[in-house]
């Protein structure tokens, strides 16, 4: 088939993927359809959630007196941490561990000075423990993940300045 051949069902297929993403509260789906030699459709549908913003916006409802500061804080929080120049992003999907073993001291905390190559955290993917190194020297300003929490590819992990 030529590259110009259109598959009418592709649009409805992509719409169905988007609906599936929304209905099941997923953040990402990736599918590849092979139609034949040199003819395929590779689709990645994703959405970004702003869980932190929703929690910050909910605060004024519980405490109307502090409404103005809470709204200002929500605006500051809504800035995408992944776009920060010091953001270290996840190279894979997996489970985050902040320490080498349960009960051990975490690799880093806010305010920790790190050198390039120091372990920031571990991401377990497919029963493999992957040490995530600091890409540059600096000070850990924010930790954006929780110990034992799930992380997706490209998600911001920490901010180093």
UniProtKB/TrEMBL annotation:
GO BP: any one term: fatty acid biosynthetic process
Ranges of residues in domain Lipoyl-binding: 85-161
KW Protein transport (keyword) present: no
Pathway stated in the Swiss-Prot or TrEMBL entry: Lipid metabolism; fatty acid biosynthesis
Keywords, comma-separated and alphabetical: Biotin, Fatty acid biosynthesis, Fatty acid metabolism, Lipid biosynthesis, Lipid metabolism
InterPro entries, sorted: AcCoA_biotinCC, Biotin_BS, Biotin_Carboxyl_Carrier/Decarb, Biotin_lipoyl, Single_hybrid_motif
UniProt GO molecular function: acetyl-CoA carboxylase activity
GO cellular component terms, semicolon-separated: acetyl-CoA carboxylase complex
Pfam family, one: Biotin_lipoyl
Role of this protein: This protein is a component of the acetyl coenzyme A carboxylase complex; first, biotin carboxylase catalyzes the carboxylation of the carrier protein and then the transcarboxylase transfers the carboxyl group to form malonyl-CoA.
Protein name as it appears in the record: Biotin carboxyl carrier protein of acetyl-CoA carboxylase
Biological classification of the source: Bacteria, Pseudomonadati, Pseudomonadota, Alphaproteobacteria, Rhodobacterales
